[in-house]
UniProtKB/TrEMBL annotation:
<feature type="active site" description="Charge relay system">
    <location>
        <position position="169"/>
    </location>
</feature>
<feature type="binding site">
    <location>
        <position position="103"/>
    </location>
    <ligand>
        <name>L-glutamine</name>
    </ligand>
</feature>
<dbReference type="InterPro" id="IPR029062">
    <property type="entry name" value="Class_I_gatase-like"/>
</dbReference>
<protein>
    <recommendedName>
        <fullName>Pyridoxal 5'-phosphate synthase subunit PdxT</fullName>
        <ecNumber>4.3.3.6</ecNumber>
        <ecNumber>3.5.1.2</ecNumber>
    </recommendedName>
</protein>
<feature type="active site" description="Nucleophile">
    <location>
        <position position="76"/>
    </location>
</feature>
<feature type="active site" description="Charge relay system">
    <location>
        <position position="167"/>
    </location>
</feature>
<feature type="binding site">
    <location>
        <begin position="47"/>
        <end position="49"/>
    </location>
    <ligand>
        <name>L-glutamine</name>
    </ligand>
</feature>
<keyword id="KW-0378">Hydrolase</keyword>
<comment type="similarity">
    <text>Belongs to the glutaminase PdxT/SNO family.</text>
</comment>
<dbReference type="InterPro" id="IPR002161">
    <property type="entry name" value="PdxT/SNO"/>
</dbReference>
<feature type="binding site">
    <location>
        <begin position="131"/>
        <end position="132"/>
    </location>
    <ligand>
        <name>L-glutamine</name>
    </ligand>
</feature>
<keyword id="KW-0663">Pyridoxal phosphate</keyword>
<comment type="subunit">
    <text>In the presence of PdxS, forms a dodecamer of heterodimers. Only shows activity in the heterodimer.</text>
</comment>
<keyword id="KW-0315">Glutamine amidotransferase</keyword>
<dbReference type="GO" id="GO:0036381">
    <property type="term" value="F:pyridoxal 5'-phosphate synthase (glutamine hydrolysing) activity"/>
</dbReference>
<dbReference type="Pfam" id="PF01174">
    <property type="entry name" value="SNO"/>
</dbReference>
<dbReference type="InterPro" id="IPR021196">
    <property type="entry name" value="PdxT/SNO_CS"/>
</dbReference>
Amino acid sequence: MTTIGVLGLQGAVIEHLKQVNALGLNGIIVKKPEQLQEIDGLILPGGESTTMRRLIDQYGFLQPLKHFSKPILGTCAGLVLVAKEIADSDEAHLPLMDIKVKRNAFGRQVESFETELDVKGLGKPLTAVFIRVPYIETAGEGVEVLATYDGYPVAAKQGSILVSAFHPELTGDRRFLAMFVQMVKEMNPAVP
Ligand code: GLN
């Protein structure tokens, strides 16, 4: 069975796990780097990227994640973690995706909101929940933008990495997660 891990250091871990299980997949919480070998794809959840990075260092995840070659879904803080560049910051975290992100991009006064978003490949619009979201300021040539809000990319894909600035785990609509699962299955055709 396809196994999807959720990095369980901080943030919306349980919410993602419930969605993975609801799709009939085997969801596990990844708390040790060795567990990365047991999974077919990894979700980096939303939360607080600076805190998550501190815990990534503390629990020995930095190198294993930098070299993780299976599919990754990064949501919100997870998107910040995989970005090659972060606006107004000297240091990127796992730099895996050719994007420059801006944190808390839609202003602190609008801490959270919901909107109907057209996402490429998903048909009818998705209800997207934004909580202190980053947006993608610039994206490299190899990055496919899947959705924009206010003119800025808020969902994108590059190779085996899928990201969203919004929180797909907070609604009952699992189509964005299903898109990720499809990527995982395409990379592991032998796993039923
Ligand atoms: N602003 C947060 C960060 O940069 C992300 C917010 C979230 O994941 N809801 O870490």
